[in-house]
Amino acid sequence: MPDFEKDPTEDQEETYENKVRKFGETSAEEYSGLEDKLGPNEDILAISSAKLKEDDRSIIALTDKRLIVFNSDRSKLLGERKTFKDVRLEDIQDIEGKQRKEFEVMIIKTEKEKKKLMTPEGEGIEISGHIRDQQESMKHDPAEQLEKIGEERDKGNISQEEYENKKDELM
To answer: Is the dihedral of CA 21, 27, 28, 32 positive or negative?
Structure first.
């Protein structure tokens, strides 16, 4: 069992099942272990199984603030065991994908480094899309967005229910 797994609470299990996008083989136990390691007011939006090299088991967690790669590999590199690496979403400059048989390689580029991740086949592009969507949503001021959707509601372009749902998302 990787270091980041733990038995989920009922709330964590419900959130994992109903609100988190899942890719590859992930579990509620991994989700709950990762959730306990997040900062205040940080939520996991998506979780995926991944590999940093052929024989390891890693998890990618996309939160509303960063991309975190949790590595379960127990090998040490120069006497250090790196259990996780996080990349702030605003630091990600480019994401490149390469199709391979049975998996995809995602290359996440920042100013300082390139991080290669093997994701489940056919899912790297969707994961990168979620990263880009989250980056885009971070650029907008929630108050400004709320004002715009209020205008759309007032024009009759969206219903009161759609307005309330979007308002809840923003808050």
So the answer is: negative
pLDDT tens-digit readout, 159-170? 898 888 888 877
Within 10 angstroms of residue 105's Cβ, the number of other Cβ atoms is 15
DSSP-assigned letter for residue 117: E
pLDDT, tens digit (0-9, with 9 covering 90-100), for 89-103: 989 999 988 888 888
How crowded is residue 114: how many other Cβ atoms within 10 Å of its Cβ?
10
Contact 66, 87 (CB under 8 A): yes
The span from the CA of 156 to the CA of 51, in Å, is 48
DSSP-derived secondary structure for 47-115: EEEEBSSTT--EEEEEESSEEEEEE-----BTTB---EEEEEGGG--EEEEEEETTEEEEEEE-SS-EE
